[in-house]
Amino acid sequence: MEGSVFTPSLEGMKHVKSEAGEMLTRPFLDVCKLILPVIDKFGAAMALVKSDIGGNISRLEDKYSSNPTQFNLLYSMVEVEVAAKTAKGSSSCTNGLLWLTRAMDFLVELFRNLLQHPDWTMSQVCTDSYGKTLKQWHGWLASSSFTLAMKLAPDRKKFTEVISASGDVSADMEAFCTNFSPFLEENHKFLASQGLDNLKAS
Hints:
Layout: H1 7-13, H2 25-34, H3 36-40, H4 47-66, H5 76-83, H6 93-116, H7 122-132, H8 140-150, H9 156-163, H10 169-193
Helix pairs in contact: 1-2, 1-10, 2-4, 4-6, 6-7, 6-10
């Protein structure tokens, strides 16, 4: 049976942890990349989110590529920056990982809302998810841009038809939320242990 739009990322999640249970850089970034085609289906409403996610993935990938052995483990990038006292810089990999994790929190919340609130419009789904995740970290400018973008959310029925082209989308969407959330929680826990989980955007 053909899989759904979530199948590639669900497959990818099996490889995110090393045998010792550590988060691996490349597989984690791959899972984030594999969910981008789903975001595409939201059209203009998610253009900001997609470019944000894409930019942060590229930043982390560039760092990883500069020394795949040193940066095989996801948190090694942060540890190097903490030691160099550059972690809080706006162009740091620490900042990239933090905002990538927050954007993924937003998507997980959005998928949860789609599953739990079949009567909500897409705009409601997006706005509620944003309020629960990214909003508290955004300054006025980012928040205004986001709120405006949410108004461009596609018709829910059309969106559902587009992503339901193959596979059991609801089950896979639920599996994505269930299986991906612990990785995001682990990222937050690690960043918090370094005092870096509460950086805000201007």
